[in-house]
Amino acid sequence: QVQLVESGGGLVQPGSSLRLSCVASGSRSISTIKIMAWYQQSPGEEQRYPVATITPDGSTIVGGSLKGRFTISRDDAKNTIYLQMNNVKPEDTAVYYCKADDRDYGREYWGRGTQVTVWS
Are 98 and 35 contacting, i.e. CB atoms less than 8 angstroms apart? Predict the structure, then answer.
């Protein structure tokens, strides 16, 4: 089992920077999990959309429209992944969720999310 806890969200103005954190705990280290990811769920949307992913070897993918503004990283010693959000825009307003894609064991885990609101 893996428990994920996100933090770092808040109310910010456009152009600001924000760093979200996702701390993993439980029986598995994030270094052994196939894919760690950030998802966003915008207001009024039922679906969560992938924002960025990172693998144990450090390979990252950031959604096309977010490239250059968002960066995903990891600290295995802290069992934590991060989402650095720069130059945020009102359309970035969403709940951001951390996901552990433990596909080798046929499981996935989600955190409860952290709210990011960008207002002007």
Answer: no
